[in-house]
Amino acid sequence: MDPNAADLLLTGGRVHTVSGGEAESVAVRGGRIVAVGSSAELAGLAASRVLELEGRTVLPGFQDAHLHPTSGGLLAIVCNLHETSSAEECLAEIKRYAAENPEREWISGDGWSMDFFPGGNPDRERLDAVVPGRPVYLENRDGHTAWVNSRALELAGISRDTADPADGRIERAPDGEPSGALHEGAMDLVGALVPPPTPAELEQALLNAQAELHALGITAWQDAVVEADTLAAYRAVAERGQLTMRAEGNLLWNRSRGEEQVDDLLAMRERGSLGRLRIRGVKIFQDGVLENFTGALLEPYEGTDNRGLGMHEPEELNRMLTLLDGHGFQVHLHTIGDRAVREALDAIEAAQRANGKRRDARHHLAHIQLVHPDDQPRFAELGVVANAQPYWAAHSRYVDELTLPFIGEERARYHYPFASLVRAGAPLAFGSDWTVSTADPLAQIEVAVTRVQHP
Ligand SMILES: [Zn+2]
Q: 353: which residues sit within 8 A by CB, 6+ positions away?
């Protein structure tokens, strides 16, 4: 056989190349593209397999702009509730997992959904009934609320006398007793006691995630949160030559520490370039989520005087952005509510005023669920990327029961305003936020276009 023959010839399609051009045919040999051109140009090429595309589209590979690969890859090890669709199914799965893992001191995992419970809040009593002796800590699908049992609350010393932390809320029964749901910063009160995954488990988790996402056509990802243990796992996998995903990562800004942590962030960035790995970003949470009223709003939630939770005071955020931008970091801000979005844009503007707009910094605002019309043109003006999760922009129970009634009609008009942002010149990037929702890019693009989810 001709040693120069391609293994695979894709022909007669619409091929979008990386450089933005269009072609009709692609030839692949040994896992690499060896020729791209019109069908006529490649017609003479010998190939062991020919695929007639009949006008179908070929893309170079998807890039997921915001996701959590290690959480995804760890689902094979922890108590995985992502496939459940009710509180009863969750409880059955928790009971089964606890019985099958008698050696685990803690039952931990994630994937329950707020719409399984009245008001979005699960209770500790039903968890006590299925796992009475061991502590249980389970995060919900978006990672902003944890469901814990009585044993876990007891070990963490949380009682009716425990005050809410500044950056979170302990859900309570009418008598003031913790009811089993911990929001945002309050999650750490128990979460800090859960034994972390071992280095070997984290490395396996990355490989699991990589295999699963490659199968969906994803060739590059932006890890939303990288910490010291995940960085070590990335490095180990990259050193063995097993990192086949092009991986960008954001180091987590630790809210319990101050600006002195920049030295540690710089040291981690220093170790963050290896093979296909690039660690150049810093992740800052500026608010929570709307479903538990921690998303930061310009005007209060309907029928309340609560404007949500701004994690950093505006002056503090301005200083942080100026510092990180000055060190050449790309800052990735979690911003759900219209107040968080505005405060983040203000902070980026402050950083540009202080540092000059000398470089193409491309800071990201992730999630952008509510963007006030006045702020929509500012993405283009400041060169900020609107990092959206299109799969969420549909009439799911999350949106219809836990969000829209509390933001009202006026704000509903700028809920997930992707097209408005694009019309205002914003660079728009899509990410799945997997494991919050599906990593399948085609399912996400479908919702971006139709605003209907097909589960
Ligand atoms: Zn995320």
A: none
